[in-house]
Amino acid sequence: xxxxxxxxxxxxxxxxxxxxxxxxxxxxxxxxxxxxxxxxxxxxxxxxxxxxxxxxxxxxxxxxxxxxxxxxxxxxxxxxxxxxxxxxxxxxxxxxxxxxxxxxxxxxxxxxxxxxxxxxxxxxxxxxxxxxxxxxxxxxxxxxxxxxxxxxxxxxxxxxxxxxxxxxxxxxxxxxxxxxxxxxxxxxxxxxxxxxxxxxxxxxxxxxxxxxxxxxxxxxxxxxxxxxxxxxxxxxxxxxxxxxxxxxxxxxxx
Amino acid sequence: xxxxxxxxxxxxxxxxxxxxxxxxxxxxxxxxxxxxxxxxxxxxxxxxxxxxxxxxxxxxxxxxxxxxxxxxxxxxxxxxxxxxxxxxxxxxxxxxxxxxxxxxxxxxxxxxxxxxxxxxxxxxxxxxxxxxxxxxxxxxxxxxxxxxxxxxxxxxxxxxxxxxxxxxxxxxxxxxxxxxxxxxxxxxxxxxxxxxxxxxxxxxxxxxxxxxxxxxxxxxxxxxxxxxxxxxxxxxxxxxxxxxxxxxxxxxxxxxxxxxxxxxxxxxxxxxxxxxxxxxxxxxxxxxxxxxxxxxxxxxxxxxxxxxxxxxxxxxxxxxxxxxxxxxxxxxxxxxxxxxxxxxxxxxxxxxxxxxxxxxxxxxxxxxxxxxxxxxxxxxxxxxxxxxxxxxxxxxxxxxxxxxxxxxxxxxxxxxxxxxxxxxxxxxxxxxxxxxxxxxxxxxxxxxxxxxxxxxxxxxxxxxxxxxxxxxxxxxxxxxxxxxxxxxxxxxxxxxxxxxxxxxxxxxxxxxxxxxxxxxxxxxxxxxxxxxxxxxxxxxxxxxxxxxxxxxxxxxxxxxxxxxxxxxxxxxxxxxxxxxxxxxxxxxxxxxxxxxxxxxxxxxxxxxxxxxxxxxxxxxxxxxxxxxxxxxxxxxxxxxxxxxxxxxxx
Lengths: 254, 650
Hints:
Chain B: The chain crosses the membrane at residues 20-40, 52-75, 110-139, 151-175, 196-221, 227-254, 275-298, 530-552, 586-607, 619-641. Chain B: Keywords: Cell membrane, Membrane, Transmembrane, Transmembrane helix, Transport. Chain B: Pfam families: FtsX (PF02687). Chain B: It is a multi-pass membrane protein. Chain B: This is Peptide ABC transporter permease. The complex is a heterodimer. By secondary structure, chain A is α/β, with parallel strands linked by helices. Chain A has a single domain, classed as Rossmann fold (3-Layer(aba) Sandwich), CATH 3.40.50. In chain A, 37% of the residues lie in helices and 25% in strands. Chain A has eight helices and ten strands. Chain A has a six-stranded mixed sheet, with helices on both faces. A four-stranded antiparallel sheet of chain A has the order 2-1-4-5, covered by helices on one side. The model of chain A has no long low-confidence stretch (mean pLDDT 87). Chain B is an alpha+beta fold. Helix content of chain B is 70%, strand content 9%. Chain B is elongated, with a radius of gyration of 34 Å. Chain B has helices at 3-13, 15-39, 42-50, 53-92, 97-138, 149-176, 179-183, 185-188, 197-219, 227-255, 258-277, 279-313, 331-338, 374-381, 404-420, 447-456, 476-492, 506-509, 515-554, 556-568, 573-606, 617-649; strands at residues 318-322, 345-359, 366-373, 391-396, 424-430, 441-445, 460-469, 513-514. In chain B, strand 2 and strand 3 form a beta hairpin. The two termini of chain B are 39 Å apart. In chain B, helix 4 (53-92) packs parallel to helix 6 and helix 4 (53-92) crosses helix 10 (227-255). Chain B contains 22 helices and eight strands. The interface between A and B is medium-sized, with 31 and 27 residues.
């Protein structure tokens, strides 16, 4: 069953009546099922992040509609959308988006606190996720006291606390070194294995994308192609690279 | 594009930061200048030398200097925090230390001079406004706005000193920290240091000890009021230390109570962060609130105490002394002057008195002994008693809290009585029944004996007149006319050149005493201190508001960023609003409430010299009144700030 359904998404920046408009997204349709792990790739400016913002309700499409868990998100109010976001969506950002004045533990439980969960539930969930992602011993540290990889693991845990049906990640490895990137991608693999949540990530990191089950390529605001992983990660990475060279029109990458 | 062009471009892009810094400095200069226009005002200065106003100005003075110091360094700190990361970048791009110093000095000089100029101009305008407003609303014609070189000198010198120290400090920081720390200075600011309960405790002890100190300073004012400087500094320092430590300690403690802490986590951690970073500002605000509430109350209290004294020490509305040759208008004339259609005479007492003078052996100065017939005394006091021909009462026209004092009066009179009088003392009565005219104490004797006195001693006959009218407030014109009539009469009679007018002019001796005149003279005397304190309250109120407001707005970019992050993880607008409201409420009212509590401590201590607060419970009412008014006005400002900030953030 599709958890996320996007149909004919169009996004145009600027005033449509005037001539100076930019079409960021052009008739994109996409569907993600439970337990799927998908990457969206494309060159800078291809509309990846715009797509993600629209899928998560942070931005509104010019036309088209997005349905998540049966709810049409462009029809609900800003406040309901916020509630929906924290109940159904987990968000992971390139710059981690942690609050500096809160400890790792406090950052993790923030969405649960907003949801008014009980103290027991909160503590249990935090312990569970901290153990899963190996951050138990930094729970009382502040974001500026820990490494980027640890910060992103904290952010991933935070995205999971309310058991979302889908996790959206915007360049989650963009600010990380390769070891930390591997760490985070393994975290995502763990999530897909352990829960029914789907993951959609936007990235231009071939290494990160190779962890996914499927990669969708977009170019100039439209879906260009997609490939599905069938064999090992290394082979999949080769495929992605090949596809990217077609996409970029350049074959002499190396 | 040359390097200096890049620097100039960056400055233009960051113009908001410069404007913030400039405004902060301007405000600091402005407040200081307004205070100096009051402190160095000619009329205020006259009162300062003679009266208690000098002590009253100590605490606001200290607060204001600390205010200026902390305010300027705070503004500088914020400004340089942002600049440091830029300087770090400039240094990595190849700018030399010399260039940096040049740049800092140039910037600072320009901003400093601009702030000084606009601060002084703003100060002049505001000060003139305050003087104008108060002169017309309070009706004190005596205090006029003027400028003097001292006002400028002190403002300029103090500002330049503080400003230079602030610049020196930041230059030191830029060159002693490495480039990376400089570049990252914006980020590392979020780091919180460890707290210590011991240091927090020391801070609290400072505050409590300083209030006890004020109590003893006022109980034994001979210690010297200079100590008040010390106590004021102690309190402010103590508040600073405990604020810096206690909120964090409190939160550390609360963290363990998870069911309480979790739902309030966002609010508490934000408040902790703010209090940590705004310790200086909050300390200042607390001091300003304290001074405002305290001085408002003292102002009202002093006025009401003196008013009470006037009304109590003058049971009659008009009183004068009459002898054969002086003030001797017949009763009809006196009536025609005082008894007005809309202000009738209610009571008219005429008390015959016989006064005998002797000389002190020590310095040959005259001492008087006055007699009053029992009949008149009965009439005056409505007491029913009979005096035999060999009995007397000793009447002292004062009310003493301490009965030792009537003994002292009597001891003096007893020596005379023993040597010259043949009466047995029946009772000593000390109570304030009439206005003090002539002597303050009398031998009360049988009227037959009274008639005989002139055969026994040399002395002067006189009559004390005590008059009550319907409304003493309306008696001014009548009093003036009576005084004129007496002066005209007295001019025609030969001047008195005997013991009675030794050390006192005849005019003073026969002056008409009245409630209305005494009341007015107090109004004028108090008017100046009233003026000074009201002006200070206004300055301080606005000072504290501007501080809170500026500081909330200086953080607005960080706040926006925070709420952007929270929005992304699904916080609703309603929740954002609630959060902002809670935070602003804490920031506006926490210092106000702490300030009021401290003011209360100071107030209780300062009341020591008028017999303690228990002796004057009405003053508590003034205190509560002023505190409530302060909090109400603060509430209005809070609503305004809240609206503005929510608007900016959402």
